[in-house]
Structures are given as structure tokens and as C-alpha cells.
Amino acid sequence: MTGCCSLNRVLRVLTVAFATIAATAAVGGVGMVVSARPQPPADGPSPAKPKVAVFNADDPRARARMDQILDEWERRSSQIRSLHAEFRRRDQDVVLNEKTYFLGRAYLQAPNLAVLDFQSTDARFDPEKAKPYERFVCTGDEVWHYVAEVREVVVYPLGTDERERALKEGPLPFLFNFKAAEAKRKYRMNLRREDDDAFYIEILPLTEEERDNFNQAIVKLLRSSFQPEQLMLIDENKNSKEFVFTRIDRNPQINPDYFKGREPGKSWKVIRNPAGVDRQSNPRRAAIPGADANSYDNPTRPVSGVGGDSVK
User: Fold this and answer.
1) Within a domain: residue 206?
2) Pairing state of beta strands 253-254 and 142-147?
3) What distances in angstroms separate CA 46 from CA 22, 194, 294, one per listed residue?
4) Strand 52-54 relative to strand 310-311, pairing
5) What is the pLDDT of residues 141-150, one digit of tens each?
6) Which of 50, 52, 104, 166 has a CA that sits 20 to 30 A from residue 141's CA?
7) Which residues form the domain of 79?
8) Count of helices and strands (H, E) across the chain
9) In this predicted model, what pLDDT tens digit does every residue of 78-113 receive, in sequence order?
């Protein structure tokens, strides 16, 4: 993978990652840590068999319930101004029969700031083995795309048209001022299964532009909190990206320095405006005193507290 890719591809990556995180978090509780349900002792009574309802895509009961979820999503999205999420990601390539693993962290701040960070790791998601892999920073005026493998940073200035498109087509409309009618225009959302613990929602893109992002998505949404526990994105070749969310905080205080584009050490190559278009921009740019030549400044330190506590 190289850092020099199109702005359209960068915006698509941000759309897929943030929209799914923000969309499911918009109807969730505040600052919850997502964890597995406790299991009964080995010598205790067997748990009751959960009630399960399976729906086909055209079941009127499922459509009515899905409409309720979308209406609640729209209502609650107006209350969200910032978001922090932590997750595990597993990519599977069915042709090459390969799996890759990542630890991820995301930040969003209204009206147009975002950070998405991935670190590669092993199949156990061991944080001690995590290494910088890829990062996207939206400063409002620019998108900074960091690729650790080739030590490149590609900076895309956002003109007026791109800024408007990023706001309309990127992740932020799913989180801030979400409109159910607009979501229905772009996606068909089907409630496919419901049990005592969760809703299983299928998301199908309705336009060619959205199908560039994914062909199908499946979200497992916990009933108790309306927090996403799992998300799977499947492309036209049946390759998949599976996300397991370990933490989501709504409306945290986020360090504003996270949303500044930063030049790493001297061994990194910075490529500005690869399309060659002459645009004026006002980048949120900050130098990194004593930056390590083998990494970029990585705001992935542990977060203390939940909910409205600072993410620093």
C-alpha cells in the first residue's frame, strides 16, 4: 500500500469507518464500555434459551421496528457534538486466504474534525505488539493521510467543493444532525434478527457511489444499551472487515491538538496536493518537537473515565 492515493478513496475510507461507528453510537448510551455478557458458573444452572425472532427483508414487523430505531437515531444525534471509540478490526481476504489484525481508535468533533488511527497487531490483538499502520486526520481545511509502512504523509487540501462534499457524504451527517429520510435514500436497512441480547441489522447501499464503500454491512446492536458490539463490512468479492467495539464515549472533551496535521520525523516523506491543483488553504499544522523518525505522534494513550471525561 502506498500513501499516494486519491482523495475520493480517502473520503470513502473515512465514510465507511466513521459512519458506521457514529451511526450506531448515535442511539447508544453515554460513555459505556462494551463487554461480553457474564457467564454462569460451570456448576450452576444452565441459562434459559434466549428468545429469537428471525425476519425476512420484507417483514412488516421488522420494517416498523427499523423505523423506530431510525427515528430514535435522528432524535439523539442532535445531542452529540463529539465522539471517541476504540475497537478491534480483522480483515479477511478470501482470495489470498489471509487475515490481518488491527487495533483502532477514532475521534470526531463537530462540525468537521475527525481522526481515525489503526495499529497493526497479532491475532490476539496484543497491544504490546501494536505498531503504527495508518492514520487519517481531517483538520477541516485538509486531510492528512499517514502510511507508516512507506513513511509517507499525503496532504489533501480541501477546496470549498470538497469540504461541502466531505460534510454531506462523509461520516459527520450520520452523527451530527442525522436525517432518517436521507439515510433511507442511500441505504436499505433491514432488521434481520432479534434476540434477548441484541438486534442484528443489515445495511445495503442503494447507490453505486455507496457500493464503492461496501456491498453489505451487518451490525450487532446490544438491546441493553443500543451500543454496537460487532460490525462486519463485506465487499463485492466477499472480502470482509470485522469490527468489535470495546469502548464508545459520547460527548467527551477531546484534546484539540489531535485534529492538527503534524509532520513526523525526517525519515518521512510529506507529499502535498498530489493532484497538482493550486489551492489556497489554512492548514491546522503543528510541528512535533523531538519527533521520533520511526513513528508519528500517536494520540492513543489510555483514556481515563467514561462519558464526559476528557479524552487526553
Assistant:
1) yes
2) unpaired
3) 36, 21, 52
4) unpaired
5) 888 999 999 9
6) 104
7) 7-32+52-278
8) 6, 18
9) 777 888 989 899 999 999 999 999 999 989 888 788
